[in-house]
Amino acid sequence: MSSPVNVPVLVKRLPGNDDLPLPAYATSGAAGMDVVAAEDVDLAPGARHAVATGLAMAIPHGFEIQVRPRSGLALKHGVTVPNTPGTIDSDYRGELKVIMINLGQETFAIRRGDRIAQLVIAPVTRAGWVEVSELDDTERGTGGFGSTGGLSALPG
Ligand SMILES: O=c1ccn([C@H]2C[C@H](O)[C@@H](COP(=O)(O)OP(=O)(O)OP(=O)(O)O)O2)c(=O)[nH]1
Ligand SMILES: [Mg+2]
Predict the structure, then answer these.
(1) Contact assessment for residue 30 and residue 89, using Cβ atoms and an 8 Å cutoff
(2) Which atom of ligand 1 lies at the shortest distance from residue 81's CA?
(3) What CATH homologous superfamily does 10-123 map to?
(4) Maximum CA pair distance of the chain?
(5) For residues 119 and 138, what is the distance between their CA atoms, to the nearest angstrom?
(6) Quick one: average pLDDT of 76-85?
(7) For residue 7, is pLDDT > 70?
(8) Which residue has a Cα nearest atom 15 of ligand 1?
């Protein structure tokens, strides 16, 4: 089995965060690197907070990093990332923050060092607009937003 390519990403620990582990893949097949909180936050039900990670980075041009929720936090506590997938641009040099929202019923305690989200690096494909006055006809046409029918895919 071939190993996935590792894209080198320059990363800088912001002052006071030398003790925190860098984002890391939990298993050899993991798509996302778990990233840890650099601060303590008590997230009340309905509240949201941009949680510090203590990290800044320089993603290579042509790549982005996506910030995604952890399914365990979402399922067990209703704690997730409202802007998922968060977009970290290759030209961003500020602190990586993870926006967390508590959709559960109880206050959720985030503690420094807790694995709060996962980071997925992905290639960026950019569009170039080609402006026209007419578009081609298609089977779908202008139908959308449920135009193909209801939920069930079963016959009858
Ligand atoms: O979950 C996130 C999302 C974004 N960012 C940082 C990195 C990203 O490059 C920058 C801008 O993000 P985005 O484009 O999503 O936000 P915006 O509201 O459009 O702000 P801006 O006007 O700064 O682009 O903010 C984070 O740290 N965490
Ligand atoms: Mg933006």
Answers:
(1) no
(2) 1
(3) Deoxyuridine triphosphatase (dUTPase) (2.70.40.10)
(4) 63
(5) 37
(6) 98
(7) yes
(8) 87
